[in-house]
Amino acid sequence: MFAYSVELALHGLRRFPKTTALAVMTVAIGMAASVTTLALLHMLSADPLPGLSRHLYIAWVDTVQAKPQNYTSLDGATTYDFKRLKMPDTEVLMAAHKAVEQTVAADIWKRVDGDAGRHFDEAVLATTGDFIPMFGVALRDGRTWTAQEDQAHAPVAVIDTELAQKLFGTAGAVGRVVRINNHAFRVIGVSQPYAPQPHFYGLNEWSFSGSSRESVFVPYRAALDAGIAPTGTDGCDDATDKNMTMLHVDPVHCAWLEYWVQLDTPQEVAAYRSYLDRYAQQQASLSSYGKKPQSQLLSVREWLMLQNVIPDNVRLNAWLAGSFLMLCMMNVAGLLAAKFMRRGTEVGIRRALGASRRSVMLQHLVEAGLICLLGGVLAWPLTLLGLALLRMQDQGFTDLARLDVTMFASLFALALLVGLLVGLLPSWRVSRIQPGLQIKSA
């Protein structure tokens, strides 16, 4: 039965070719517009670290000794809320070791010097040795630094293969020396380029960018010893020198470190949240600044939602493209209804010869599905063209506009769904044709 319906549907496609071509083009344009925006939204909302991010949480406690209205960045222009901590608090939290693993992170742009006078301005991540296994940084050679080296302020570094190639002409850079801020750091590890999308652990630097990423990882204590000062902060104590600028942040009295913990079970999450609450309650001195105890423990997904990482215009464009697809579907449904009803006499004869309403409806549903599948095939290159045009727009995230396997499959799944929706009413109407009236009129 189904094979016969397909045969009739293919025959129906060849009849009224102009109407068929117009329906295919209308479906293709609507689907291409919709899938283009959905593909970008899909890439932007993807899990930045599949398999790892569900165990990572950003921990924050408000310990900045300043009135709420003064709890702003040092430039006085923008209020940041990246949930950063002061270094003394991160030291206490890490010493307590209430999580499976914990680390800090702060991005700093510095000139990195290698052999033969080669130097480049690079993003340096001041962190701890636990960052590399916690965040899934893939080591090609060497190792990360140990907790003992962290405590000893050891001037060591892990660099990625691309920077190693630029500085030394080879990816085998373990044992070499790089100079950061005119201080020597021994390379103990070489990693693969690391650029999770979005850059969720340092949204103050960039959100989405495959080209901008940290290429150097160093112990944050050794970075401070080398005069590699933090350049961004959520706020500073009232005791901070007011002559300081954003380029010279007081690492003790300013909140500049993101603090991340690894928690593997819901019980560990609940226990750590209680620990943070107790730690916040201990900040009794904040009451004199008119501040109540505040603490938060946010998963990666909660963190990204709080920061509204996906640009509003991407969501708006997705809604507009979806609305455009609906409009195209309504037009195609009208075209199919007109096309099918023009076969009234043929359908009436089939019904008089014993064809059931079900078989008539199935034939026309299959024909609608084939039209929309052809529209999906045509929408594929149109979608690739739309994504290429998006990548030409330098908006900091459009370079992620790609059609992955999931969205490729979704394109044709959407084509089948559209075929079912647009063909349902026209197919039902043509199946209700009374055979006697059609034969009499013939």
UniProtKB/TrEMBL annotation:
It comes from the Bacteria. Signal peptide: none annotated. The chain crosses the membrane at residues 21-44, 318-341, 362-385, 405-425. Residues 20-226 form the MacB-like periplasmic core domain. Its main location: membrane. Keywords: Cell membrane, Membrane, Transmembrane, Transmembrane helix. Residues 321-435 form the ABC3 transporter permease C-terminal domain. PANTHER family: ABC-TYPE MACROLIDE FAMILY EXPORT SYSTEM PERMEASE COMPONENT 2 (PTHR30572:SF18), MEMBRANE COMPONENT OF TRANSPORTER-RELATED (PTHR30572). This is ABC transporter permease. It comes from Dyella humi.
